[in-house]
Fold each of these.
Amino acid sequence: MNSQLRREYLDALGLKTWTLRTAHGTADAPSLEIASGATSAAPAAVPAPARDVSAMREAGVDWDELRARVAACTRCSLSATRTQTVFGVGNPHADWLIVGEAPGAEEDRRGEPFVGRAGQLLNSMLHAIGLAREQVYIANVLKCRPPGNRDPNLTEAAECLPYLERQIALLKPKIMLAVGRIAAQNLLGTEKTLGALRQQVHRFGLSQVPLVVTYHPAYLLRTPTEKRKAWEDLKFARDVISRV
Ligand code: SF4
């Protein structure tokens, strides 16, 4: 990506003049210390061992069959209130997997994750690190919208995570970017805050895919002062994948 285009995307993020700096005024080199990803079984997130077992339900299923199973799924009560399932979108050979929490109203209506204003900001965030939306794969922990955009409960996440596990097994990404607290907590099986999970390399599931945590674009739209931290996280993730 040329520097002019990149500058335009950074402008969209509100980061026109910002650069990472250390106390000595040079660009930060993020630590690549590995964090222990799934350390605690917490009521707000699906414990990692349960995830690994439940993921076997979809073992051996290909993309088409997986998509059909999700479209017909009634494993949790969200099937009764959804307009349609939101399977995921993007390049099935992508190195990057972006994982959010659950579909919102617009996603539920259109059947695609991260559309609307939050989706546009996510696109800008990706462009800022040289990625087009079409180059990555985007999915959610939950495939159906929780009514009123409430947080997913433990049962819903436990029932739905096997689909994402199978997507990950088929995709074999080099890195996962968990966007938002709910996605991060469910993927890592922890109750830690998003602030405590940022700027570390976690490892996801049996595949041990590197996983980096950042803010959800919907949150950044409400709290634009945090965009600089999101930019730090994106640069951190880009540094991580460059070393894979
Ligand atoms: S949220 Fe997931 S488990 Fe629940 S009905 Fe939708 S696809 Fe099935």
Amino acid sequence: MTSRKVPVLIVGAGPVGLALAGDLGWRGVPCCLIEKTDGAIYQPKMDMVGVRTMEFCRRWGIAGWVENSPYPRDYPQDNVWLESLTGYEFGRERMVSKSEEPCPPQSPQKRERCPQDMFDPILRRFAGQFSEVESRYRTELIDLDESGSGVVATLRDLATGEEYKLAADYLVGTDGAASIVREKIGIPMRGEPVLTFTTNVIFRCRDLPSLHDKGKAYRFIFIGREGTWLTIVAIDGAERWRMSIIGDKSKREIPEEEIRALIVRAMGKPFDFEIESIMPWVRRELVAESYGTERVFLAGDACHLMSPTGGFGMNTGIADAIDLSWKLEAAVKGWGGAELLRSYGIERKPVAERAVKEASGNLGRMLAARKKGPPEIAFQPGPEGDAARKEYGDWYTETMRREWYSTGIHLGFSYYHSPVVYPDNTPAPPDEVSDYVQTGRPGHRAPHAWLKDGRSTLDLFGRGFVLLCFKPGDSIAKSFAAAARARSFPLQIVDLCDEANVRNAYGADYALVRPDGHVAWRGDGQPDSVGHVIDVVRGFSPARSEVRSAEADHSVIAEHAITAGSAH
Ligand SMILES: Cc1cc2nc3c(=O)[nH]c(=O)nc-3n(C[C@H](O)[C@H](O)[C@H](O)COP(=O)(O)OP(=O)(O)OC[C@H]3O[C@@H](n4cnc5c(N)ncnc54)[C@H](O)[C@@H]3O)c2cc1C
């Protein structure tokens, strides 16, 4: 079979590949998405859709699809630490259901609970709306050959066994942990290849909440005399439960009989349940040495693997896709320069390194009970036991809190150091985990603020660049418009002169926001050369050395230990 050349070939239709295909389709960029499976999900992995991902869903008009997924919105989201479901409870972090949780002040959206077997079909439906997106399931990439003018992929149709070639201008490997794309372009992963050998077990039991006295909760963390040994999460808030036998660095296959015994131990008494699937997996802490070549890029688990503790993996991957998508559009449509695609890895790799580190820290905190297990008295009845349980539980609750409130990880990363961001030599804000102070500093996510007409500022962004003008007088807007026109650079000018609150959030009279919703440039007056600003942010020339102090900024970031900040 021969085929025409496609602008972008995406390998792997997990959540990251689907999000990339959908975003490219939304931008009118033709792409082909291939997936070796039929797309069915037997073991949902992710279930937490982070606040930034929800902002992207809002942009795409599908936030309501996520909010209205079958996951029950009245299901309490408590995290509970306990001996067993019918044994002693040490403590809990009470967390309201999704319908009760308010949006954080920094966003018009909030994180949602939507497990992968509900979320992937939403992304698939979104991507399927666009005639630009061609999906080929049961199609596997087996080889690729990159040249200066493009990539030729060798694909196998798994229904017929036929092999054929497909040429593309660009190829993106969203093919997960065992990425063949990464292997073919020879990029190694760096970090810790094994944190734990863990076994996930999905079991069914509709009556589970009525069999114990701990009430409905999202996650139960089981702590025995040996410390933390198991977690159970409510996958669909109804009848499917995922048990993770956490394990350690030693590889071990756990027989089904032992798994059954562990489920009974977690309940504290025999009960009826049905094991649906068993999946051993390795928890890793790895980031790819680089994020691609000139024409082949990696996104999602293909370039970063982290402990699920914190729910950062897919969310980091979808933000990769958002960073890459508009740069591919710019390359395909001809208004982006060479620096733009090169900036992808420069911007995204530090974000993954930050999330990977935080995820491992969360794992360490969860397993802290292995080093400091409850005293024996905490497993005994009576007031002394109650007091010991409370003391231990309070300590563990405090230890774990950082994992439950991580707005800073989801929103607080910055591309200030990027060659396609125009620095303004303002100091970096503190890098916090549990809080995020919005800033209009170049490289950061453009702040959310409510406009007088009820929209969020975020509703202004997405397609091309947007110049926000907070100062009356149109000479600067005219200069930008003329320079943009001369370069076929997609720019929309938005007059926000009567929005003083919004101006405060952006900290300047003018802010130029990229299609991914990050600030590219800000200033109080006309820059020396508007054309140069546009050429920098569209990747045709790196930011001037006299205004760039990226090295200095980097050391500022490095100096800030990431702090947990105040929970909200
Ligand atoms: C227990 C658990 C809980 C988690 N919870 C969360 C969470 O709450 N929030 C969160 O953000 N993250 C979470 N994660 C991480 C998250 O699931 C992953 O980061 C995410 O699935 C990665 O998406 P991806 O699209 O990059 O890769 P994958 O989901 O692995 O998808 C890759 C796709 O590529 C296909 N493929 C592979 N090779 C080829 C080939 N040669 N040709 C064609 N197709 C190919 C595969 O079949 C697969 O469909 C969790 C992970 C685990 C293990």
